[in-house]
Automatic annotation (TrEMBL):
Positions of short motif TonB C-terminal box: 789-806
Pfam families the UniProt entry points to: Plug (PF07715), TonB_dep_Rec_b-barrel (PF00593)
Organism ancestry: Bacteria, Pseudomonadati, Pseudomonadota, Betaproteobacteria, Burkholderiales
UniProt xrefs under InterPro entries: Beta-barrel_TonB, Beta-barrel_TonB_sf, Plug_dom, Plug_dom_sf, Secretin/TonB_short_N, TAT_signal, TonB-dep_rcpt-like, TonB_rcpt_CS
Name of the protein described by the UniProt record: TonB-dependent receptor
Amino acid sequence: MHQSGIRRSALVLALAGALGLPLAATPTSAQAQAQSERLYSIDLPAQPLNTALTALSRQTNTPIMAGGSRVAAHSAPAVSGRMTVQEALTRLLAGSGLSSAAAPGGGFAVTAPDQSPAVTTLAPVLVTGRQQLPDPYAGGQVARGGRVGLLGERDVMDTPFNMASYTSELIQNQQANSIADVLANDASVRTVNEGQGSVAGTGDEFQIRGFPVRNQDVSFNGLYGMLPLRTIAMDGVERVEVLKGPTALLNGMSPRGSVGGGINVVPKRAGDEPLTRLTATYQSDSRFGGMVDIGRRFGENNEFGIRFNGSYRDGDTAVQNQSNQMGTAIVGLDYRGDRLRVSLDAGHQTNNIDAPGDSGVLIFGDHLPVPRAPDASKGYSPDWGYSKSRDNYGVLRAEYDITPQLTVFGGVGYRRSNNRYLYADPIVVGENGELLMRPYYWPSWEQNVSSVWGARGNFNTGSVKHEVSLSYSTFEQRAGYYDYYIYGLSPSNLYDPADIPKPSTDGLSSSPPRTSLLKLPTIALADTLSFADDRVQLTAGVRYQTVKSTNYSYTTGQETSNYDKSAVTPAFGLVVKPWSDVSLYANYIEGLTAGPIAPAGTANAGEIFAPIKTKQIEAGVKVDFGSVTTTLGLFQIKQPSGLATVSGGVTRYDMGGEQRNRGVELNAFGELARGVRLLGGITYIQPTMTRTASPDTEGNSAVGVPRWMANIGMEWDPSFAPGLTLTARALSTSWQYQNLENTRRIPGWTRWDVGMRYATRAFDHPVTLRATVNNVFGKDYWSSASEGYLRLGSPRSVMLSASVDF
């Protein structure tokens, strides 16, 4: 920045300080120019002008200097839509005789013809505690940063990992029902089971960089095991954050040991502007619903906040004989003081499905080919099948600034889930889609308690800045289940499902005893060192993780197996910024999964192996073009696997196998031009099996991992129709092998989604109408062959909604 610019910025800061008014960080001249051209989603009711300017400043996080009797004497009209701050100011000031202009050093000044900008006062800019989320990037679909586990909130350009944070604006505009719907925008992620997008499923499973990520491993505000066990409704979600690759240092080991990446859900908080939003929804075939979203803040400085989200949806889905009833109630309370921040989130979710559609298809017999995908709108599920789940959860978190350089934090959460599942596994036994249906009944429950405690601080050693994080966390899970495979196989057909008899569950208990106990205590320490005016940032850390697991017989209650092992996982990350808008990054990080126990029949039967370490190296470049950000990264992930080998007539089980995924990712998001938004990318992976001890599988591709994945989403606001937005998205996935011998594979597929929305006002209230058609061409396809199961893609589905703000 030029010296004159520095002096002007210092003058503005000094003026604000003298007036006792808060001020957002003053941007550089380049940042100020980018900010002046950025489009925001603005929604301001008719109100006094000084109040409207304050609300505009808060909604856009832009300093706006104004004041005096001329401002206080005027009223502002209602302003809504996507526009720049300058355009919003022009509308607000219409007829007032006041004008606005860009202020030196950033922001805007509102003045009368006879008033100099140098003596203006400042409209308050919202400054919250350290829990404030990173701002949305240009286009509003992705945030500028997000939570990086142990390291806290980070800007994407200062993070040595590949990350994306999807905003509530995207969630609402795309009418996302689940995390799977949100992650359909990411080319590094595939939903193994496309259950909840348009077909009601019992739980989402993901694949990131070719490795599975279970729905149970999604964290809530950084805590594992707090969200509903099955599909997670989006009603109370502010953001969905994705970290790609192993995350053992950042998040600790997840309950199911997922290593492909980390997914974190950020809850909604009350904003400074009162919110009352009612939404009516429709989803084909005849599923109707309603949602309410209410937010208020109280106190002299809006210290106390409450946000309530409730919804109910019920009716038939786009699949024949299938229906889905879901109800949610979620409340978020928070307090934000000068030094103390506290939040409490509590929720309930009930999800009942008739004829759930997510069970994978198995193939019996190496001689059988992969069958063509059946009509997805008919499905193959027996109509007597059901899934019933109920979840209750609560999370309390707090942080306190001991000094401006040291913050301590803590949190504790609890969740209880109860589930019942009656279904029949489809098994392909013939070349023309002949099936045998294997009925089973699976009642289960799960009870989790999670906690985290720690401190973050910053200090300098000479010219080197340090940001240090220390945390200790615990996770305890008690669970129970019955796994009843009911005697009898019923014939059916993939393309013409038969009415198979409903199995009787008489005499089968629905209240299983405890069958497992899992404990995951862990401690971690990390330091980020910054040099050369923060242009070089080196992160180093280490985590000590313990895994304690005990299994019990559900018939006798006796212990059947016990696991108690520990592991140390280091990580390193480097960011080099040769220019302010370019970041070169690299990392080494590990993931953890509980090690296996050598099975019976091997010479070392009962041997307990240490937690499996999955190791990643990655390097790439991130470029912020002002309104579009791109990330290009190359990665390699190696995960050991167990296998039995025979030597000298002795069979021994060890961790000699390995899956090695090498890949490249290109992602882009932002605003290509005024009113044209881009979100998408492309990923290429080589998933190679090595050290398999068999010439038939050595060097083969891993099961269920596609080579190519591409997602391209576009939004366009046509200038000839203010308030209208047209959307289109394409998801494309290449073929993938169904078996390790690579003799069977499912074909690649491409799905198109289209939509539109219209923002207007009715009776002086903002109204938004939305329409989306997923899989618009009605393509039938196998979406995944993960773990050898064939998963059917979603059929064509129509979604409509209308939202009104009061």
